Amino acid sequence: MPLPWSAAEPAYGFNSTGETWLPQPAEWASLARDAQREDPTSTLNLYTEALRLRRELGLAEGAIEWIADAPAGVVAFRTSGIEVWSAVEPGVEVPLPDGEVVLASATVTDTIPADTTVWLRR
């Protein structure tokens, strides 16, 4: 499916004709780039911030070290001074490790909710 670019445009601004070869559901309007841009919790803004931090912190340059003692239901690794913790077990929250939360895919308090990834500076 084409990426919806503009919520108010025919075919969500995907092309200049306003027509697509596949139907696009009305509920996709909220997923259009212009709508996502205005939502600070959107996937677009999360990825934009993640790419900025990756560049700024040099995360693509360092080696990856797996964190073997992470709790069950967590995939965790460290690179370039940042630890990435992903709570992958459905319905299970895990304690948030000490450190500065640099980026999170959802709101975190003293736990990391299920289906959430957190970048920590420790």
Task: Give a written overview of the molecule.
It is a single chain. This protein is of the alpha+beta class. The protein folds into two domains: 48 residues, no CATH class; 57 residues, Immunoglobulin-like (Sandwich), CATH 2.60.40. 17% of the residues lie in helices and 24% in strands. It is built from two helices and seven strands; from the N terminus they run ααβββββββ. It has a five-stranded antiparallel beta sheet with strand order 1-2-3-7-5. The chain starts with 32 loop residues before the first helix and ends with a strand. This is Alpha-glucosidase.
What is the topological layout?
Layout (H helix, E strand, L loop, with lengths): L32 H6 L4 H15 L7 E2 L7 E6 L2 E6 L6 E2 L4 E5 L6 E2 L3 E6 L1
Antiparallel strand pairs: 1-2, 2-3, 3-7, 4-6, 5-7
Protein name: Alpha-glucosidase
Organism: Demequina litorisediminis
CATH architecture of the largest domain: Sandwich
Please, how many domains? 2
CATH C-level class of the largest domain: Mainly Beta
Biggest sheet descriptor: 5 strands, antiparallel
Oligomer: single chain
Q: What is the chain-wise order of helices and strands? A: HHEEEEEEE
The class by helix and strand makeup works out as: alpha+beta
Helix content: 10-25%
Looking at the structure, what is the overall shape?
Answer: elongated
From the N-terminal CA to the C-terminal CA, the straight-line distance is 40 Å
CATH topology name of the largest domain, in short, is Immunoglobulin-like
Unreliable stretches (pLDDT < 50, length at least 5) are none
Work out the number of β strands: 7
Mean pLDDT: 88
Protein name: Alpha-glucosidase
